[in-house]
């Protein structure tokens, strides 16, 4: 009898389906790191530190597999590697709209009363008006936005380098996470290395015009190194923290790191 059969028999668990579930949890980057070791129950037990003696420990192991994805993506993320940029002639027109609601429910944010709040581990300016944000040095980029729902489009966004903004807000850049809360109650969060990446922009314009409501007025954090759902629109508050913040889609099972 094979070791795997003995193992399975003794535990009353179906090794093959557990291994299959674990593999489903692991997307490409984690698989690249762990290679063939994850193909056995013993390997899974070793990797996760779970004993796999009951359903509860198997579930705990599967949850760990999902966070291995985040760890693997974070490990493979090169903070100095730039995402591709494109000529303006390649901009997708019209650029698609997407949100967890229809376009007629896009929030209307009042520019005159709008304030961007910075909270958590930050010792500098904690409240920003739009005028103050517009007065900071601006740059623009033409990059590809990739949505997990199966479309991608090239657009041009302009705004403040997020690393610069964090510095001016006195953010503790040794913290693990930056979390975003939005006017439509959307939320997401990112790792600090991505927050500090040179192409991560707090954007105020789209295609040279003030960012229209559908694309996130008054601002969208644009990261060409991350999938669409990690790019929050209508941001109203930013929190620097060491406590895992999750997010709207992340809490429903989307991969947290969300690199493209
Ligand atoms: N506030 C907020 N930000 C959001 C979303 C949302 O529903 N609300 N959807 C995300 C998703 S899934 C995508 S693909 C992009 C779409 O941005 P766009 O409308 O500018 O194309 O916004 C992201 N940011
Ligand atoms: Mo998306």
From TrEMBL:
SUPFAM superfamilies with a match to the protein in the record: Oxidoreductase molybdopterin-binding domain (SSF56524)
Boundaries of every Oxidoreductase molybdopterin-binding domain copy: 105-249
Coiled-coil annotated spans: none
Domain of life, per lineage: Bacteria
UniProt-recorded name of the protein: Molybdopterin-binding oxidoreductase
Organism of this sequence: Caballeronia humi
